[in-house]
Design a protein that fits this description.
The chain contains 17 helices and eleven strands. The protein has helices spanning 53-56, 59-72, 74-87, 107-125, 140-153, 219-222, 266-287, 299-307, 309-328, 359-374, 378-382, 390-429, 446-449, 464-477, 482-488, 493-509, 530-543; strands spanning 93-96, 157-163, 173-178, 195-196, 199-201, 207-213, 230-234, 244-247, 291-294, 346-349, 452-455. A hairpin with a 5-residue loop joins strand 5 (199-201) and strand 6 (207-213).
Length: 544
């Protein structure tokens, strides 16, 4: 039986080439990172996983551990609290800036509508009856804070934007937060190509619906409820109104659930907790005035008592006398008092040896690792500012603030913008906010109408005088604007301008002048270089 062969350009049969498996163990590697022979890499054989397959089975255990350590460890709890305080704070103010050309509005109409929308939203979000919250536990700031705590602790925030006009609230729109543990496949079935860990996908891989357990899995055991059930909730209505909000940051393509920021540092946090507790217990033991009583008897007397009846009787009598003496006068050494021991007994006191000399340095290094992982500075996490000067603190805050701003903007787009869009649609539909006749309808341009900025907590000032002067200089040079400068300090520039005008009118009615800040301007001084400033601050720190 003849077989066909492949000929080369000279007409000769081509030789079979030897093929070497890529990354085959025992072979030489161009990169040590792929080596199986290097002593530091030979036993490192990680499993190749996709973004979601790494989570589908292991996510529940990981999240439960994160939640447990956040409940019981002070540093993990501090990391979560500092992160929430830095990004959410006491809530976000709204800043609406409508694109007049896109919406066919004049500049005056756009400004008036923006002001009205801001006022109406503030009424809705700050309603003292807490209608914005399905459980009516707080205003929108409370909902936002709890949602971001889920985002940090569970890796994701989940909420349903509900509609119910029968509640008696001014608006039918409200928010119902959902514990992410309730998002799962019905009856814990295995994943399928179009349903991953409770998220139902369309043909492009986008979330189309969510399968929500009617209650938390643990409630089945705590409250003795009936068999669990699931409800399918669509992502949005047929006309695009958001229904389900799922806020998380995917690290890889094909990932449909979130990962807690504490996950990469969880093992080290647990070890830190154990080490801290061990040092604390050892220090407590050594802090106690421990006394050990030694008997005057020796091994010879004990051996004689085992074979000689008279010696045994003498030993028993001595033991009984010692017992009666300790019963009548227990050997205690409280402050200011002394008790005599049985004749011949002595006391040996232990010497404290904890915490060890490297304990503080070790914990500082470990906490820097934790702070870096969650996007904070060591000083923000520990509230210890004793080892930084102005320049280093300023540089650290600026670097960290970029990451926090990115996370805040992403969470705003995924969570707050969806709630705002649903509320704005209702406000237009009910004619609570009336549009000019020439304006583009909300249905025709929902994205343009929903354009909004959220003003979060203030970045803060390390040196208020220097940074306020720098802000004024940027405004004078025209390289910044009032809205940006105020937003960085957690303020709405419109409110600042209105209140300044109100104060000016009030002071003028009393015949007082309005402060302009000119009196605070210092005399021209020699410009100090950064090196000179650092040297001066080091000298001031030593003197203090």
């Amino acid at each position: 039986m003849s077989t066909s062969v492949i000929l080369d350009h000279n007409g000769r049969p081509m030789q079979r080439a030897s093929v070497r498996q890529r990354g085959w163990p025992g072979s030489d590697s161009a990169y040590q990172a792929a080596s199986y022979t290097h002593p530091d890499m030979s036993d490192w054989v990680p499993r190749s996983v996709s973004g979601q397959s790494a989570l589908s089975i292991e996510r529940d255990v990981m999240v439960d551990r994160v939640q447990d350590i956040a409940r019981n460890d002070g540093w993990a709890s501090a990391a979560m609290s500092r992160h929430v305080d830095t990004i959410v704070g006491s809530g976000w103010d709204i800043a609406v800036d409508l694109p007049e050309k896109t919406l066919n509005l004049s500049q005056e109409q756009a400004d008036e509508l923006s002001d009205e929308i801001e006022e109406r939203w503030t009424e809705f979000a700050s309603d003292p009856a807490f209608w914005v919250d399905a459980k009516r536990q707080g205003p929108m700031a409370s909902v936002l804070g709890r949602a971001y705590r889920h985002r940090f602790g569970d890796g994701e925030a989940l909420a349903e934007i509900c509609w119910d006009e029968a509640r008696g609230a001014p608006y039918g729109t409200f928010v119902k937060l959902i514990d992410p543990a309730r998002l799962s496949n019905p009856f814990d079935q295995a994943d399928t190509p179009d349903r991953r860990d409770g998220v139902e996908l369309d043909r492009y891989g986008a979330a189309d619906a969510y399968w929500i357990r009617t209650q938390h899995p643990d409630d089945d055991y705590v409250w003795g409820s009936s068999l669990p059930s699931w409800v399918r909730v669509p992502r949005e209505t047929e006309w695009g109104r958001p229904v389900m909000v799922h806020a998380f940051e995917a690290d890889r393509d094909g990932q449909f659930r979130g990962v807690p920021p504490l996950a990469p540092i969880l093992r080290k946090l647990k070890q830190m907790t154990q080490y801290d507790e061990a040092e604390l217990k050892a220090a407590m033991v050594n802090a106690v005035l421990a006394a050990f009583i030694t008997s005057p008897g020796d091994h010879g007397e004990i051996a004689e008592a085992l074979t000689d009846n008279e010696a045994a009787e003498r030993w028993d009598k001595r033991t009984l006398d010692r017992f009666n003496a300790y019963r009548d006068a227990p050997p205690k050494i409280p402050a200011g008092m002394a008790h005599f021991l049985y004749p011949g007994d002595s006391v040996t006191l232990t010497q404290p040896g904890h915490p060890n000399s490297g304990f503080e340095a070790f914990f500082r290094a470990a906490l820097r690792n934790v702070a870096s992982t969650v996007g904070l500075t060591y000083e923000q996490l520990t509230m210890d500012w004793s080892q930084v000067n102005y320049s280093s603190a300023r540089a650290a805050i600026l670097e960290i603030w970029r990451g926090l701003t990115a996370r805040k903007d992403m969470f705003a787009a995924q969570f707050m913008n969806q709630v705002y869009r649903a509320w704005l649609e209702e406000a237009f539909d009910k004619r609570i906010i009336r549009l000019p006749g020439v304006a583009v309808s909300f249905e025709a341009a929902p994205a343009a109408w929903s354009r909004v900025d959220w003003i979060g907590p203030a970045r803060g000032w390390v040196d208020p005088e220097k940074e306020a002067k720098a802000a004024g200089l940027r405004l004078d040079l025209g390289i910044s604007h009032l809205e940006k400068e105020c937003a960085e300090q957690g303020m709405d520039w419109k409110q600042v301008a209105r209140k300044r005008a109100r104060e000016r009118r009030f002071l003028a009615s009393l015949g007082l002048s309005f402060p302009t800040g000119d009196a605070a301007k210092p005399e021209p001084q020699k410009t100090e270089t950064s090196d000179e400033r650092d040297a001066r601050e080091r000298q001031e720190a030593k003197a203090a």
